[in-house]
Every structure is written in C-alpha cells, then in structure tokens.
Amino acid sequence: MNKTRAMSKTSENTSLRVITGVFLFFLFLIGFSKFDEAYIQLKHSVVGEHIHAVLFYSLELAVLLFVAYGICKVVGNINKQKFFVKINYKLFYYMGVALFFLTLLHELGKAFDTAHDWESIPMEVPVWCAMGAFLLIIAEIFRYGIRMKEDQDLTV
Fold it and tell me: pTM of the predicted model, to two decimals?
C-alpha cells in the first residue's frame, strides 16, 4: 500500500515537472523569438552611449528574469507540497507588482529615450497589466489560504 502511494506521488511530481518544463520551454521560445527584435536596440544603445536606453532596457530585462525566477521557485515549492506558505504569497505578490513595474518602465523608456523606436518593441501594456492583476489576485488567494491554515492549526 505504501509502495503504491509512493509511486503515485512520484508520478505526480514527475508529471508536474514535465508540464512545468514544457510551459517554461514554450515561454522561452516565445520570448526568444521576440528577444532579437526587442533587445537588439540595447546593443545599439551601449555602442551609442545612450544611458537612458541602457538603463530602461536593463531594468526591463531584470524584471523579466525576476518573474521567471519567481515562477520556478513557486513551482518548486508546490512540487515539495508546500502550497500555503508565506514565500509563495510573497512571490506571487512581488511578481504581480513587477509586471506593473515592467509596463511603467516601458512607458518611461518611450518618454525619455527619443533615440530609439520604442514602438518596435513588442510590449502589450494591457496584457502585462492583466497578468500582473491576475498574479495579485492569486497572491490574495494564497494569503487567505495561509490564514485558514493557521486557524486550522490553532483549532487542532
């Protein structure tokens, strides 16, 4: 009986890893196809010493890397059966705020850096804002789950 339970738990963990890996792979492919188009201007900005453009491009890239790290960390926690823990709430919250910050950076880049065509960079502001709002909603669901878990632990 325990062997069967251990095998099913292993297969669940493996399937979650496979699904997560495929999801991240497709996100990488989508991002990479746009990467050359979007960040080739970063190379031109460094060569042309356009400090505003380098700053905004670099900050956008840092935000995207943080969101990717957050997704990997949350999936790792869920894979370890750690659902309603504070780190998951914080990661969802910070990723949601970061996506709003990403759109703000893009708009500031358009306003301050006139040397480049920021319209050629594929940035759908409503989509990024919607994803940020969605992550903030998930963060609140996790916060509520943490409170319920703490109440249940105190009751027992």
Answer: 0.71
